[in-house]
Amino acid sequence: MYTAISAKLINIAAAVITGTALLVSAGNGAAHAAANKIVARVSLSQQTMEILVDGRPTFAWKVSTGDRTHVTPTGSFKPTRMHEIWYSKKYDNAPMPHSVFFSGGYAVHATSAIKRLGQPASHGCVRLHPDNAADFYQLVEVFGPANTSIVIVN
After folding, report:
1. pLDDT in tens, 12-51
2. By percentage, how much of the chain surpasses pLDDT 70?
3. How would you classify the pairing of strands 148-153 and 38-43?
4. Which residues contact 18 (CB under 8 A, 6 or more apart)?
5. CA 123 – CA 51 distance, rounded (Å)
6. For position 91, what pLDDT does the model report?
7. Helix axes 130-143, 2-26, angle to 10 degrees
């Protein structure tokens, strides 16, 4: 377990250092705009989330998005707020660990229903395995919400 966590933290740190090196070495606005950014690209049709760090694929995870009766919004979003633990006010105080909210009540968060990952199952949120949700939460903390995009496509 510690090896997996250490490897992920090393990847995160390496991505931050690489982005910072681009900032320092280039010294121009173009490098500054591209460095130290993450994009979480969610595919509704594939039920996956790909994490790009400074344009480089870094992680790929299974997700569960909205089911037939609950839509997950599409578009490009910035995180609006984050909570290590949140309880849904709409769905019976359901726990939403490592929540990264991106549009109203919609968030990327952990789920205990890990057997349902890879298929639509949520009320519109993007659900992740608890380990992956913790990693995503940490990435957003490290890079900052302003440098994070959540892009949801069909």
Report:
1. 555 555 554 444 444 454 444 446 999 999 999 999 999 9
2. 77
3. parallel
4. 54
5. 22
6. 86
7. 20
- Residue 71 tokens read as 């839509």
Q: Half-sphere exposure of residue 91, counting CA atoms within 13 Å on the CB side? A: 13
β pairing state of 99-103 and 106-110: antiparallel
Sheet containing 75-77: order of strands? 56-62, 48-53, 38-43, 148-153, 75-77
The pLDDT of residue 116 is above 70: yes
Quick one: which H or E segment has residue 39? strand 38-43
Q: Dmax of the chain from CA atoms?
A: 51
Q: What is the mean pLDDT of the chain?
A: 86
- Name the band, by pLDDT with cuts 50, 70 and 90, for residue 6: very low
What residues have CB less than 8 Å from 65, skipping those under 6 apart?
42, 44, 47, 72, 120, 122, 124, 125, 126, 127, 152
State how far the Cα of 54 lies from the Cα of 19, in Å rounded to an integer. 7
The Cα-based distances of 78 to 20, 24, 37, 120 in angstroms read: 21, 26, 12, 23
- Say whether 21 sits in a helix, a strand or coil: helix
